[in-house]
Queue: 2 jobs
Job 1
Amino acid sequence: MSVGAPKIPVVVTEVVQVNDLIKRFRFQRRDGDAMPTFSGGAHVVVEMDDHGTRRMNPYSLMSAPSDTSGYEISVRRDDVGRGGSLYMHTHVQPGMEMVLSHPVNLFPLDNRAKKHLMIAGGIGITPFVAQMAQLQAMGGRFELHYSMRSPALGAYAQVLKAHYDDRVHLYYDEEKQFIDLKNLLKGQPLGTHLYVCGPKGMIAWVRATATEMGWPALSVHSEEFLAPPVGKAFEVQLAASGKTITVAPNQSLLEAMEANGVEAPYLCRGGACGQCETEVHRCDGHIDHNDHWLTDEQKASNTKIMPCVSRFAGAALVIDR
Amino acid sequence: MTKTEFEPSIKSRPVYGVLEAAPGLAHLIVADGEGADAVTEMIARAGTAMLASTHIIYMPGPNGCDKSAALQALGAAQFRSSPSFAAASSRLAKVVADAHMGTQIYVAGTEGLIAQVCQAVAAQGLPYESVHTEHRGSTVRRVQCVHCKGITENVTHDPFKCSHCGLSLFVRDHFSRRIAAFQGVNIDAEDPGLVPDSVERFK
C-alpha cells in the first residue's frame, strides 16, 4: 500500500509449524470485523517492528478468498536473509498485534482462460492454494504441477493432493522427479493460461520454454518477490525534499527514505509492481538495477530507479523524491 | 499492393501489423480477398517448411477479389476455400476448439474478418492480442447500430441507414472487440431529419 493508504490492524490468532522451514500465520481483525475480500494470487505487506527496525515484507495470501474471517500466510525461514522471515519465525506468537496492508493482486488469474495450468516451486505454492480454492468454487478448470525438494519439505503437498486428487501432480527433487515441461506444454488446449511461482531459475526456464513452443507472452504469468539485496552503504540526494541520506548496507533505499521521514510511494516492496519508480536527476556512478519492472533500455539509461530493491555505487546520485 | 495505412485515431480503433511467421507447433491462417498476398509474402520470407503444419481458411473479399487459386497452390497441409465468413465460421470455431497451445494464428484481409477471427479466438481464452494481423484490401466496415444492436456488414458510406431499424447512423472509430464491430450512432437524434450528406468513406 502506498503512503497514507488505510491499513488493517490485526491480531495473530494461530501460528503453525508446517515443516522444518515453514510456518503458517493466521491474522484476524482486532475490531472483529470482516477482512476485505481478495482474489487468488493477492499478497499483503506485513509490518514488523524488529527491535526498532521497521520491516515490511510482502507475503502471498493462501487462505480461501471467500473466507473473510481471517487471512493466512506461510513464511519460509531464510537464515541468511535480512531478517524479516527470521523475525516472523522467532518472535511472532498468537495474541500479538500486527499491521497488514490491504491485499494487492499482481498475480491474478485471467478468468478468460479455458484452463489454468499452474507450476509451483517450493514456497511458491502459496498463491496457488488461494487460486485453486477460488477456481474450485467457480467451477474453473485447473491443473497444478508442484515441485519441491522432498516429501518432508513439501508444504501442503499431501493436503492438496487429497483435496484436488488428480488435478495435483507432485515432483520430489530428492527422488529425481522433474516436471516434463515440453510434453506438458505441448498437450494444452488453446486458451490455456500458464502461471509460475517459484525460484528465479524456474520462472526463467518456464518462460523460455513456453516462448520457444509458441505460447504468447500474454498467456504466461509469473510472480517473484525479490528481497532487497544487501550491499555497501551509499549516499543519495533527494531533490524534492532537499535531504541527503545514507542507505545502510542492510537497508533498502526505500527504507532509508522512510527512516528519514520522506514519504515515498510503494506497493510490493519487491521490485515487481512499479509503484515506487523514481526519476533520476543525476547519476555519477553505477545503479544496480535489481528490479524486474524497468526495461533493459531504461536500466541502461540510468534515468529511473526502483528504490525498493536497487542500490548505487559511485560519486553522486540525485533522485526526484 | 502492401498493407493498408490508416490515419491515427482513438485508442479503441484497432491497429494491425505485418504478418511474420512465429515459432509454433502448428499454424492457422485465415484470410479474405487481398489478404492472400500477405500470406504468400509471409511464407516466401519464412520458407515453406511451415506449410506441413499449416491450415489455411480463405474466402473472397467483400469487393469480390478471389485469390484462392494462388493460396491453394502453396500446398499447405490443409486448405479450405469458403464463399463467405458466415460459411467458414463453424469450421473456424471447430478448429480453434480442437487446437493446442503453441498454435500460431494469423489473419490477413479486411477489418470485419480480422475482428471476427480475433473474437472467435478470444472466446477460447487466447488473448486477442496474440493473433498476428495484417490489413489488406477493402476498408469497408462492419458496424453495430448502438440503438437496435443490429450489425450491418460492408458499410461504405457515412452516415448510412441501419439495415435493421432504418436510423441514420454516424460511423465512429469506436470499436467493440467483444462484438467485433465499429459503433454506429444516430446522427439526427436531436434534430430529426437533419442528416448531413452521405459520403463514401470506406471502399
Job 2
Amino acid sequence: MTDQLISNLIVAAWLAPAAGFAIVIVLFSRMGNDQNKQNTAAWFTVAVMGFSLLCSIIAFVGYGARDPIVETWNWLPIGVGEYAPIGPMVDRLTVTLFVMVSLISLLVHLYSVGYMTGDPKKRRFMAYMQLFTFSMLGIVSANSLLHLFIFWEMVGLTSYLLIGFWYEKRAPQLACKKAFFMNRIGDAGFMLGFGILFFQCGGNILLPINAAANGGDSMLGALLAQGIDPLNPGANNWWLTLAGIGLFCGAMGKSAQFPLHTWLPDAMEGPTPVSSIVHSATMVAAGVYMTARIFPLLTPAALLFVATIGLVTLITAALIACVQTDIKRVLAYSTLSQLGYMVLGLGCGSYTFALFHLITHAFFKCSLFQCAGSVITVCHHEKELPQYGGLLKKMPWTATAFILSTLAIAGAAIPIVKFGDFSVAFGGFFSKDGIIAGAYTYSSVIGDAGFGKLYVWAPVCIAYVTAFYMTRAFVLTFLGKPRNQAIHDHAHETPWTMVVPQLVLALIAMIAGYIGIDKLILETAPQTALAAGAVTGHELHENMHTGYHFVHGWVLLFGGAWIVSMIIGLLIYRNGFTITDRIVRIPVIKQVHWLIYNKFGFDGLFDIVVILLGKLVAIIIGSFDKYIIDGLVNLAGWAGKQMAFAVGIFDDQVIDGSVRGIAEAAKGTGGMLSTTHSGNLRRYIMMMAGLSIVGLFVILASVGLIFASA
Amino acid sequence: MNEFLLNLLIFLPAFGCVGCLLAPRDSAAKSLALAISIICLIINIFLLRAYFVYLADANIAYSLQNGVMAFVTDVSWIPAVGIRYTIGMDGLSLPLLLLTSILNVVIVLASYSVKTNIKGFMGLYLLLMAGMYGVFLSLDFFLFYVFFEVSLLPMYFLIGVWGGPRKEYAAIKFFIYTLAGSVCLLIVMLGLYFLVPRVPGLSDANQITSFNMIHLASDGAVRDAFGLGGEFWSYGKAFFILLFIAFAIKVPVAPFHTWLPDAHVEAPTPISMILAGVLLKMGGYALMRITYPIFPDAAMWAWFAVSLLGVISIIYGAFCAMAQTDWKKLVAYSSVSHMGYVLLGLGVLTVTGFNGAYFQMIGHGISSAMMFYLVGVIYERAHHRDLNRFGGIWNSMPTYTAWASIGFFAGLGLPLLCGFPGEALSLLGAFQATSWITTAADWVPFAGSTSIMYILGGIAATGAILTAGYILWMFQRVYMGPAREEYTYTGDQAVKSREYAVMIPLGLLAIALGVLPSLFVFTMTNDTVHAFFKIVRADAVQQVMTAAGQ
Amino acid sequence: MITLEHFMVLSAIVFGCGVATILTKRNAIAVLIGIELVLNAANINLVAFNRYSWSGEAVSAGGEPAVEGIMFALFIIVVAAAEAAIALGIILNFYNMHSTVDIERANLMKG
C-alpha cells in the first residue's frame, strides 16, 4: 500500500463519524421522533463506525514497516507565508490506536442501541457519540500540538454534551460543567506549554515520533538543532521544564490526574455508555496519549513531576475505590487508579508499557462499565452495591464478562508456570508488570533513599488493592444472597446488543497480552525513551532488564497478588456488608474509613478553593466595576452636570439678562407701534395715502428749499 | 467602475436614509433598508472579486511602503487646509467591509420586530451604515474623523429612542464617552496638521498632506521625526497615547469600558448586534490603520502597557461577566474580555499576534452579534433577562438551542468555531514576542527579558478557564433543566423563520470561519496585513538596531 | 399736438379716481377696481415717458428705440393680472367665510 492510500484511509476513518454526526443531526432530525425512526438513526451510526473500523484495520494491516506518514495542511497562518501545521500523521501507534478506538467505539455504539432504548433523545445521543469518536480520532491522528489541541477541546465539548445528556436533572448539569471546567484549567496549562514550545521550536511543531521523524521537522529535532538536549537541559532552559509541566497539566485535566481528577467520578451522572467510552478509549486516553507523544521533550524535572502526580493519583484513587458503594463510582476510581499507573509509567520512562496498559485497560474497563450499565438498567437504575447481590443466575453472561474483566484488571496470571517465554496471563498482567519494572528502574535511578522506593513499592501494593476492590464489586453484585428482593426479582439478562459487546471486549482483554500490541508499540517508542539517557544517562533499555529481573525475582509477589486479594475479598464480602460494618466500627479504622469515604475531603476543598473563590473574585471585581470604575464615570458626569448648572445660572442671570434687557426694550417699542396695526384695510390705505401726501409735501418742500437757496 | 462602487457603499445608504424617512408606509421603509443592505452585500462580494483581480494584475506596483490601496477616489474637499475626500480599500478593510455588509443584512432582518416608528429606525440605521462603511473606507484623517462621528450620532438616537428603561442614561453615557475619545482624535489631527509641515526632509513637501493617513504612515521622514530620537519624539509618544485612548474607548479596553454594558443592556437587540459586531471593530481597525503605522516607535515604547491592558481586559471582563445576573450584561462583558485578545495581539508586535488580533475582530463580530441575537430572541418572549429565573429552554426549544450552542460555544473559543483562531493566534503571537524582546534595545520596556511573555501569556491563557466558567454557568442556568411551562413557546410565540434567517447565516459563518480560517480571512489579508505590518516593524526594528549601536 | 403733459394729466386723473375708489368703497371688488385704476395710471405714465424719451430718429438712421417703459408696463400688466387673480381668490374665500365682501369686516390681521 502506498503512503497516500494509508493516509487517506486514516482520514476517511477519522472523518466518517463527523459526517455521521452531521447526517444524523441535519437529515435524521427531519424524520419523526418515534422509536423506529430513532433506531434507524442509531443503526446508521453503528454502520458508520463499522466503516471507520474497516478503514482502520486495512490501514493497520497495510502499514507494515515504514516511516511515519506526515501530511500538512495550511490552516492557520502565523506569519508571511507560514502556517501552523495541522494534518494527519500516521505511524504505528496511530494505526494501532485507530483500531482500538474505532473498535471500542463501535462496540459502545452497539451497546448504546440497546441501552438507550426508549430514551426520547436517543438519536441525539448517538450523534454526540459520533462526534466524540471523531474528536478522539482527531487527537490520535494529529501531526502537531495545534491539531491535537483542536480536537482536545472538541473532546472536552462532546464530553460536556454527553455527561450532561440528561440535563433535566441537576446532578448531570453540575457534572458536565465541572468536567469541562476542570479540563479548561488543564488546557490553560496546555496553552502555556504549547505557546512556549511554539516559540522555541519555531514553526517546526511536528510531534516527535521516532528516530526517523526526529529530524529537523520535529520539535525534538528543532530543540536538538539549537543544542538543547531535553534530558540535560541546563539551567538556562528552564522554560523546557515549564513547557513540559504545562502540557502535562492539560493531560492532568483530560486524564483526570490529581488534583484535577474530581470531575471523573462526577461524570458518572452521564449515561453508562458514555462512561464506558470516556473511561476507555477516548477522553482519559487522550491525556496519556498526549503525554506519550511529548515524552521525548520532557526534562528530568518534568518527568519527576509526571511520575509523582501519577503516584499520588494511583494511591488515593485505589483507596477511595475500596469504600465506594456506588458501582459506577467504584469503577470510576478504579479508572483513576489505573490512569495513575499509566502516568507513573510514563514518568518513569516506561513508555511502551504505559501505552500498552492504556490499550489493555481500555478493553477491560469498557467491558466493566458496560456490565455495570447492564446491571443498573435491569435493576431500575439502582446503582448502590448494598441493593444488589446474587445476580449471577439472573445475568450469567454479564457476570461472565465482569469476572473476566476483573481478572484482567487484577493482572491475573498463573505464576511460575511458563511455556518457554510464554506466561499464562491476562492482558493486564503484562502491562502492569512492565510499568512496575520501569518504576523499579526509575527508583534505582533517582536514588535509593526511602522516597525513591515509594515509586516502586506503592504500585506493587496498589496491585493488591486493585484486585481487592474489583473482587469486592463483583462479589457484592453477583454473589451472595439478594439484599433487595424486589430488585432481584425483576432482574433479567439484557438484549444481545448489550451482551455481545461486553463479552467481546472481555475476551480481547483476556488475550491482549498475546497479540503483540506491546511489540508494536515498542517499535514506535521514541529512541530517546529507549536510548534515554532519559533519566540519568544510563541506558534505560538495560535498566529495564534490571527491572525485569526484579519483577521476575519476586514473581510470586506479583503473580500471586490477584489470588491473595481475591480470596480476601471473597471471604470478607460473601455475606454482603456484615463483616465490614463491624470492622469500620473499630475506632481508628472508623476515622480512616470516614476520611477515605469522603475522598480525603478533596472534592469539597476543590469546590471551596476554586469555585467559591472564583465566584467571590467575580463578585468583588463585578462590584468594583459597578461602583468604582462606573462610579468614577458617573461622578465625572455628575460633576460636569453640576458645573453646567452653575454656568447655566450665570448665563441665565448675567449674560442672558443683558440680552433680555435689549429684547424687552424692543418689545415695548413694538407694542406701542402695534396699535397702528389695526387690521382694517381702509385704514391702512388711508395711512398710506396720508403718508404719501406728507412725503410728497416734504419732497416738494425740500426741492423748493434747495431751489430757493440756490 | 470599482471606484464608483466604493463611493456607492457610502452614499447609497445615506440616500436610503432619506428614502426611509420619506417612505409612505412602514413596510416600504423596511423593504428599502433590506434592499440597500443586500445591494451593499452584493457590492462587497463583487469588490472581493475585483480586489483579487486587481492584485493579480501584473501592472500593479506592489510596494511595501504603500501596500496595495485599491480603487482610490481622491478629490479635493476643503482645499484651504488640504482636506481631501480620499477613499480606497485594501486587504485590511475588505474583511471588515464584508463583515459589516453581512451583519447589516441580518440585522435589518432582526429589526423587523421593532414596533415603534420603524421609518425613523431604518433611516437612522442606514445613516449608521453609511458611517460604518465610511470609517472602513476613508484614507483621509479628517474624513475618517467625520465618519467616526457620523456613526456615533445615529447610535445615540437608536439607543435613546428605541432602548430599554434607562435608555436616556445609556445613550448619553455612550455618546459623551465616545465623544471624549473623539476629542483626543481631534487633538492629534490638529497636532499633525501643524507639526508635519515642520518635519525636516519630507520626501515631497508639496505632495504630502497632513491628513492622508497612508502618506503619513509611509513617509520615512515623518516616522523618523516622530520616532525615537526624532525632533518630535515626545509628541510622537503623546499622540500615540491620545490616539490609543480615543480608540481604546471604542474597543473598549478596561478601564474605559463602562459605557459598553449600559449601552448594550439598554439598546434594542439589533443595535446591540451592530454595536458589538461592527462598532467595536472600528476601534481595533483604527489602531491598525492609524495608530500603529504612523507611530511605530511609540508603539514599541508602549508595547508592554498595551499588552498588559489587553490581558487585564481579558481577565477583568471575564470576571465581571461571571458576576452578572443580567444575561445581556454577561454577553456585553464577554465582549470586553474577547476584545482584550485584540489588544494583546496588537501590543506584542508580532505578525502572528497581528493576524490574531485581526481574526479575533472578525470572529468576535460574528459570535457576539449572534450571542446578542440569541439573548434577544428569548427576551422578546420572556420579557426579562434574569439568568436565575430561566431554565429548561433546551427541551422547550431544541432547534433554537442547537444554534444557540453554536453561538455561545463560539464565544467560549471552542476550536472549529470562529472564536478560536483569533484567541490562539493572539496567544501564540504573545509567546513569539519573546524573540524580539530578548534582543530589543534598552529603551524598550522589559528589553532582554525572556520570561515576561511567558508570564503575560500564561495569565492570558487562564482567561480561557474563566470564559468557560461564565459561558457554561450561563448555559446551565438558561438551557438545562426540565422544560418549563413559562418558557415553552409555541404557535405565535414559536421561533419564526425570519428569526432563523438571522441565526442560521451567523451560525454557518461561525462554523465556516472556524473550520477554514485561512480561506475566509487570511487569503485576503495576508499580503496586505503583512505588508502593512512590515511598515510598522521594519522601521522599528531598524530603530532598535540603531539604538543598540549607540 | 398732444404733449407729454396731456398724458400726465390724464394719468393723474385716473390715479385720483383709483385712489378715491379705494378710499371710499366698502365693496372689495370695487377696491380691486380702484387698484387696477391706480396701476393703469402708472402704465399710462410709463408708456408716455417712453414715447417722449425717444428722439424719434429712425432706427435705420441709427436711432435707438427706447423700450424700457414699455417693458415696465408689460410687467405691470402681468403683475396686475396675477394680483387680480389672487385678490379675487381671496375675496371669494372671504365671501365664503363671511357671506359678504365688505372690507370693514376684514380685521383679523389686527396686531
